[in-house]
Amino acid sequence: MAVCDVCGLPTELCVCEDIAREAQKIEVYTTKRKFGKLMTVVEGIDAKNIDLKDLVKDLKTQCACGGTAKEDRIELQGDHRRQVKDMLLKKGFTEDLIEIR
Ligand SMILES: [Zn+2]
Fold first, then answer.
1. CA–centroid distance, residue 49 to ligand 1 (Å)
2. Distance 17 CA to ligand 1 centre (A)
3. Where are the domains positioned within the chain?
4. How far apart are CA 32 and CA 14, in angstroms?
5. 29-44 pLDDT, tens per residue?
6. 24-100 adopts what CATH topology?
7. Tens digits of residue pLDDT in 16-32
8. 53: CA distance to ligand 1 center in Å?
9. N or C, which terminus of the chain has less Cβ within 10 Å?
């Protein structure tokens, strides 16, 4: 029996694709903080579909940086747009949902 590797449900029960299609775009961009430090912001991830606390933990490990998850928004210290995108693709998000600015 085929199992979805995003939600772990049998593919006939899985609604990941439907959710993804309805989801708004995920925006990944950098912004400047105090003292000119760059911060990477990830917005638009549906917190009902993805555990942001888990995701930010993985991102912090992958990017070796500090970061926080607040409601539906992730902030990472430094410019990690590339790594964020790679991680989102690994988590099952499709490329055209992710907008890098
Ligand atoms: Zn699924």
1. 10
2. 7
3. 24-100
4. 39
5. 999 988 889 999 999 8
6. Translation Initiation Factor Eif1 (3.30.780)
7. 877 665 556 899 999 99
8. 19
9. N
- How many residues comprise the chain? 101
What pTM, to 2 d.p., does this model score? Answer: 0.73
What would the two tokens of residue 52 be?
């942001």
CA of 70 from ligand 1 middle (Å) equals: 25
**Three-class SS of residue 76?**
strand
Strands 38-43, 73-77: pairing is antiparallel
How many A from CA of 10 to the centre of ligand 1?
8
Burial readout 26-46 (b: 16 or more C-beta within 10 A, e: otherwise): bebebeeeeeeeebbbbeebe
Distance CA 89, CA 91 (A): 5
Cβ atoms 20, 88 nearer than 8 A:
no
